[in-house]
Specification:
The chain has 121 residues and is α/β, with parallel strands linked by helices. The chain has one domain: 2-Layer Sandwich (Macrophage Migration Inhibitory Factor), CATH 3.30.429. It has 3 helices and 4 strands, in the order βαββααβ. The longest helix is centred in the C-terminal third of the chain and has 18 residues.
């Protein structure tokens, strides 16, 4: 924990280098929050089937979900969310300028009583 899930429409302008993007996200999170690098996992899902707003082909989206354990205060979660949104706005600036693009971040809290893990990282 934490887990990043990046979802995006397949019409975004940027050609994603997932490894590079995830490395930046992991660094950003560990340098600006109470998170350990060895606990962070990331994955991406490109959506070929999507419908945004009125369905025009120039509509796009980028959505990042960050799942973290319960217990961090609201101020910390809000600061992390804003930081991640600023990061995504920079990374997807061309899509935001050239398309009708929605960029969103959602931070979810996971209950430690029902999260199970084994790792040798």
């Amino acid at each position: 924990m934490p887990h990043f899930i990046l979802e995006y429409s397949d019409n975004i302008v940027e050609k994603l280098e997932h490894k590079d993007l995830f490395q930046k996200l992991h660094t950003l999170l560990t340098e600006n929050g109470p998170f350990k690098l060895s606990d962070i996992k990331s994955r991406a899902i490109e959506h070929k089937e999507f419908y945004v707003a009125d369905g025009k082909t120039s509509n796009a989206f980028v959505h990042l979900t960050l799942s973290i354990f319960k217990g961090r205060n609201l101020k910390t979660r809000q600061a992390v969310g804003k930081m991640l949104l600023d990061f995504l706005q920079n990374e997807f600036a061309r899509s935001y300028q050239e398309l009708k693009c929605s960029i969103t971040v959602d931070i979810k809290e996971i209950d430690t009583d029902t999260y199970f893990k084994i790792s040798n990282l």
